[in-house]
Amino acid sequence: MSKLSNPLAVAxxxxxxxxxxxxxxxxxxxxxxxxxxxxxxxTTVTFTNDDDDAHTVTATDGSFDSKGLDTNGRWRHTFxxxxxxxxxxxxxxxxxxxxxxxxxxx
Amino acid sequence: MKRAxxxxxxAWTGAGIAYSLGAGxxxxxxxxxxxxxxxxxxxxxxDSHIGFRQAANPDxxxxxxxxxxxxxALPAQPTFVVHTGDITHLSTASQFDDARAILSRxxxxxxxxxxEHDVVGNDFKPYLANFRIPHxxxxxxxxxxxxxxxxxVLLNVFNFEKLGLLGSDQLEWLRxxxxxxxxxxxxxxxxxxxxxxxxxxxxxxxxDGTKALALLQPFDRVTVLNGHIHQxxxxxxxxxxxxxADATAYPQPKPGSAPKPGPVTLPRGDLLRAxxxxxxEIDGGNLRFEDSALG
Lengths: 106, 295
Prior knowledge:
The complex is a heterodimer.
Chain A: H1 7-17, E1 24-28, E2 31-33, E3 36-40, E4 43-49, E5 58-59, E6 74-79, E7 83-88, E8 96-102
Parallel strand pairs in A: 1-4, 3-8
Antiparallel strand pairs in A: 1-2, 4-6, 5-7, 7-8
Chain B: E1 17-21, E2 27-31, E3 40-45, H1 60-72, E4 80-83, H2 93-103, E5 110-112, H3 125-131, E6 142-146, E7 149-153, H4 168-179, E8 187-190, H5 209-216, E9 222-226, E10 233-237, E11 240-244, H6 268-274, E12 276-283, E13 286-293
Parallel strand pairs in B: 3-4, 4-5, 7-8, 8-9, 9-11
Antiparallel strand pairs in B: 1-2, 3-12, 6-7, 10-11, 12-13
């Protein structure tokens, strides 16, 4: 934990390790919010489509893909490996987001 | 019923077309010379989004069926009907089944291209199982000659992260395909995503489209008809004329006129005036088309 200097990152890791409300990404108005989400390794992130159009959560490196998420659709993915994961919507490629996965240090 | 005055009638004739600068700085066309009514060669429909259930159109199956009925009721049946993609909303088996059930009622043969909504997850199989274009290549693209016209189907809905993309295999196929076509032969190209940079901010472009257009530019009369943007927009580059078509599902905003390109919700009567089908006549090698609304 001490290795993380960004307060936001610390908060996100605490949030995740304490088992509070799972981190989530809201899809609305053709955008991912938050656009960048920082989580601890092993965290399951919930993506919810609150838009009136269909979307996807598709990793740029191909490591994950929600496939089609209709309006009110939900998709969960567990981020195991630390790293920075860029993703986009296959149906609206101008929609971009990033999940930053931090290693959990003891 | 023909389209209300706020939506343009567009016709291309040998006599030309008057262009005016519309919203977003895009050229929109208006016919200046009416041609002699001839035979409808083919009909274009697009963007049916079967499976969509939101406020912009809670009954996309119903409006597609209206378009099919209108086409079936034309005084003479066209040689074919082309659907320029986004047949379904999310590529599911039941959505393809529903779409096929409605489209199979067309009296004329159907040529249906996939849109990015028909290959969600970059999976081509559900589309191919339902709507493979006759005599198409392994990649799904195709060409054929009919009535003195060379028709080409190009697919630009894969690798969508980079916006529309044709890819080197398809471009090489196009280069070879065109070597057998005479310079004066009218060429008609069908795509889903616009081949030119219509509005790249919303993904309304094909990244390597300029390479295809360079191959098409030497031909005297080239027409590119596409869908994807749910509205009629016309454009011209050298000998190449472009026309995006209305959806049968719901309209989308004019480029840049809204924060996002999502579905536009209108009262039912206005919706039916903003969606429809396009009839195309070919007269002396020149394409003349008319966009008809459903209401």
